[in-house]
Write a structure and sequence with these properties.
single chain, about 10% helix, about 180 residues, 10 strands, lipopolysaccharide transport protein A fold, mainly beta
């Protein structure tokens, strides 16, 4: 017979996870400010769709989508265009599906999962299936599902989550305020 954790133990664990995630939320914003104003380009083996308002296009085989420093890649992508024919959303699957983006300090963020759902309007990306988000120089988070805000660097993890935070290089710590 296995012993169940006490309510206070579960509460402590949840508080600790919330604390650690709040540390990640204080890290610098990730997306380059000008990325969303750049043109969207794609390469793929085949496509099925058209360029018109409120349309859906499917890209298959060796898919690579770029917009500024943002890159999405995978085996299959479904693109959702808005009323002004702008890219609103991209759902990418692969082994793995991949996203990468640089911030204004040229720090690279990468994410890998079986599927990623990227909302180009809000900057939110949902990675599902063996998800990993890595922020250069800061650390990485693993989970079954990670919801990641590319503007604020906030991450919400669900299912088998684990995190690694890298220490700051010597001499970069902020002095304590009294």
């Amino acid at each position: 017979m296995t012993k169940r954790p006490s309510r206070s133990g579960i509460r402590y664990c949840m508080q600790f996870v919330a604390f650690v995630l709040s540390i990640f939320a204080m890290l610098p914003a990730v997306a380059r400010q000008g990325d969303r104003s750049q043109i969207v380009q794609s390469q793929q083996d085949a496509l099925n769709g058209f360029y018109s308002p409120n349309s859906i296009t499917t890209l298959t085989g060796h898919v690579l989508i770029t917009q500024g420093s943002t890159k999405l890649s995978g085996n299959l992508a479904t693109l959702y265009l808005g009323a002004a024919q702008e890219l609103n959303r991209a759902v990418v699957t692969g082994k793995p599906a991949h996203i990468e983006q640089q911030n204004d300090n040229n720090e690279l963020m990468t994410g890998d999962a079986a599927q990623l759902d990227y909302n180009n309007i809000s900057g939110m990306v949902v990675l599902t299936g063996h998800a990993i988000v890595n922020q250069q120089g800061h650390g990485e988070i693993h989970g079954d599902k990670l919801t990641y805000n590319t503007q604020t660097y906030q991450v919400i993890g669900q299912g088998n989550t684990r995190m690694t935070l890298l220490p700051k290089p010597p001499g970069t710590a902020s002095p304590a305020k009294i």
